[in-house]
Queue: 2 jobs
Job 1
Amino acid sequence: MTDPVPVAVLGARGRMGQEVCRTVEAAQDLTLVAAVDIGDELSSVADAGPLVVIDFTHPDVVMDNLRFVIEHGIHAVVGTTGFTAQRLDVVRGWLAAAPDVGVIVAPNFGIGAILSMRFAELAAPHFESVEIVELHHPDKADAPSGTAAATAHRIAAARAAADSPPIPDATTTELAGARGADIDGIRVHAVRARGLVAHQEIILGAEGETLTIRHDSLNRSSFMPGVVLATRQVAAHPGLTVGIDSLLGL
Ligand SMILES: NC(=O)C1=CN([C@@H]2O[C@H](COP(=O)(O)OP(=O)(O)OC[C@H]3O[C@@H](n4cnc5c(N)ncnc54)[C@H](O)[C@@H]3O)[C@@H](O)[C@H]2O)C=CC1
Ligand SMILES: O=C(O)C1=N[C@H](C(=O)O)C[C@H](O)C1
């Protein structure tokens, strides 16, 4: 039997971090060697000798964490949101100097959420209208969610590739924000309410019909199979991988 993969978790006291620590401890082929949160020195991560770091922290700190991890030759699985195209390019730059290191950044590790993004991408060119509504717990720092932003980018790319016409919208008078955020021409609406975890609807409309693609993460265990899959595979995927679609054969 091979030795378990040593794993460090950043953001270990957070909602996701606690769930990830429990999951790593329960997996026979993984072992938790460091559980780090705000106030702990990043050097303690390197000292613990992980093969893989899992980051669920905050958009404001994740880039510093990632630079440290890559510079120390450690693979990274990153669930923290806030990754723009520019940020991803910066990560690619760091990885150019560390060609053996693998980094997987995914805005959502839930298998159903990943499939729903794929379904939306497939459906979007076939409908005149499409809007996204994401719904989350009120303790979430970022709006819209990373998942909603990624979904909007993918829908917009699919529509552009299919030469879809602009989405109809006769609004000429608007209270600021009433039509949501505009991401690549796709309207995204963010709801925050106690009791919710993580949910998303993609509403597609055509003459005489609508299609709603809805995904619900009812608790944070929904993200764990994807996190574990990425943790097991990241060392075999040097460079930057965005999303885990390719690991799932999508
Ligand atoms: N990719 C995915 O599937 C998912 C991604 N997320 C994302 O994960 C991130 C964290 O979400 P939650 O766990 O709900 O937030 P949270 O606020 O409960 O946890 C974040 C933790 O990070 C810690 N932290 C902050 N700065 C740090 C630093 N410099 N070093 C180490 N720890 C630090 C905080 O003290 C806190 O304990 C968010 O960006 C969220 O959008 C959340 C759920 C699923
Ligand atoms: O903060 C959360 O909770 C979540 N964040 C991710 C996002 O912003 O897309 C993933 C999921 O929606 C839960």
Job 2
Amino acid sequence: MTRKKCVGVLALQGAFQEHIDFLERAALENCYNVTVIPVRTKKELHLCDSLVIPGGESTTMSLIAQRTNFFDDLYTFVHSSQKSVWGTCAGLIFISDELENQNELIKTLHLLHARVKRNAFGRQAQSFTKVCDFSEFIPECTDFPATFIRAPVIDKILDSETVKPLYTIPNNDEEDVIVAAQQGSNVLVTSFHPELADDDIRFHEWFLKKFVVDF
Ligand SMILES: NC(=O)CC[C@H](N)C(=O)O
């Protein structure tokens, strides 16, 4: 029996409970030897092999981490090659190296070697769900409902040796934008919210298998 792995979901702010629910379902339905916990403290973080940073408001997330003296522990954790990290939406922003816009208030974790553009598709009213064919990296997943809410995109990859795009979509009349990417073997980022896909846990199943169970 492999050692039980622990996946943390950063629970300072945002849609962390939805990730916890989907991860727990994915672990149960696939008999993965994994526990899932909310993470708000250094003690909880130190239990984790992997950390999911959810959607929400990245500036708020960063400020709470700084004001609770948690930022440095988060920085150390995400920069460990022994840990895996998945940033969704605000989580993608929070771990990015550079921000193309709205960077005045936020202190990021400088993990993802990319420049990220916040609110790339516009405001809340421009949020949308797009059925995506992820089968190039998630076998047979040809129709995943990806929900974009005031979503960021990867505007520029700063290290093409380590950061590989996984999926791009058109952005109005501009060139296609990167909305999912992987850095090395242990960092995943998505602009969209798989935790908000009605009852569809395929993305979380893939994350657990690739970035936790097999990592
Ligand atoms: N759904 C989200 O996580 C939105 C992210 C938010 N627009 C930010 O800049 O942090």
